[in-house]
RNA sequence: GUCCCGUUCGUCUAGAGGCCUAGGACACCGGGUUUUCAUCCCGGCAACAGGGGUUCGACUCCCCUACGGGAUGCCA
């Protein structure tokens, strides 16, 4: 059996899209689990919309997330001669003809067909005219008029198309440039692709491409048409309904492994497992188990998956990944006397790294804004804060246990409720009423800074 | 319009004719742990698009309808 070769063929008309990333992932996983190759082809024949920046973005992102191609990517824009040769071959074999219908004429034809309740399609009027090539002619494939094409889809089974539903598609434009279908078919052959895994929006392109393959005498390919990734409005995921670029998710602090995990779970599942890494997918993924219906991309599931992946990191790994997010806020992660304790205590404070970095801010930098509602609630008078400051100043042994002991003692002696003692300190230290256990929080801050923060809040309350 | 693909809890899904009183996960709601928050634990809510067949029996097979998506380009 031939080794499996898959490919991801993006158009560089935008940054790497997470829908595209999912297609790439399935291609990569399928190739790897079959000891095959995963290739990339840049479909940049649309010179109007394609850019080198997007191309670089797509390639860099795929590589950095772990979906490296097994060969250097190829660009369609550089392979014109190959396509022209293939077109010539089809023409020579009598499976293509020149057509000089103008755009206006075609439009008129479609209008009439639609008006007559028929499917608008090219009627093959130039097919037997034996026209010569000119700067006004396009090369059209002579599609068989009878019979049918059966696409055997790994996910959907057999899909039948009647040849009479298909019109004679254009292979070469009047400016001599090759069209998408031709390039696609030729490249899949040239790259020795065996399996085409792509979005279901390509299903109806498939029989057309098979006709081109047949005209060229190419072998059959294996197909798998993936269900689309949808936005919450059930429309195809796009900038209109969600963040679409991989970078946006990375910038928010979602882990690569969590992003890949959530993308894989869109349309595929295995038993009752939810957490998967790339290696797990290579081991357990089965293309035949992929769902047929489109799947809505739910950010809350990604949130949860991210927290799962975050929790599996050891502290050093966690710190390394968190660091850039702190840097973005002008914080040096090591600029704290109890870094490890601090990070370890706050690592579950949010489900993404940028959120955690935000939580960490008051532990590194001066408090930007206090929760004034909380101040109103817990500090209607600040006698308690004064008392606590004195008590803490006099505490020699600054550890979690002794701090907790002192605070509890103060609470009992003054007949106060727990929050009446604790929340003022929390607000003083972090600006808000949330923090790890109070003794622990005070230890993290250290005596000097803790006292300083309490004094600052006393000043604010005195105003 | 025509052709193609699809339709199980709000969301992702399990389900290959009896194992289904339709399972899991996220979200949500409630409870517990935590002096607060998060984590964690326990519990709850919630779905087979509709209608016909086939069958002793249908979420599962067939047909129709509805709805959604795609194609119908000298875009990819």
Descriptive account of the structure:
35% of the residues are buried. The chain is built from 19 helices and 12 strands. A 3-stranded parallel β-sheet has the order 1-2-3. A 3-stranded antiparallel β-sheet has the order 4-5-8. Strands 6-7 form a two-stranded antiparallel sheet. Among the domains are: 148 residues, 3-Layer(aba) Sandwich (Rossmann fold), CATH 3.40.50; 91 residues, Arc Repressor Mutant, subunit A (Orthogonal Bundle). It has 463 residues and is mainly alpha-helical. The mean pLDDT is 92. The structure holds one RNA strand of 76 nucleotides.
Estimated radius of gyration: 32 Å
What would you call the structural class? Answer: mainly alpha
Low-pLDDT runs of 5+ residues are none
State the name of the first-level CATH class of one domain: Alpha Beta
Q: Main sheet? A: 3 strands, parallel
Strand content: 5-15%
Range of helix content: 40-55%
**Tally of helical runs:** 19
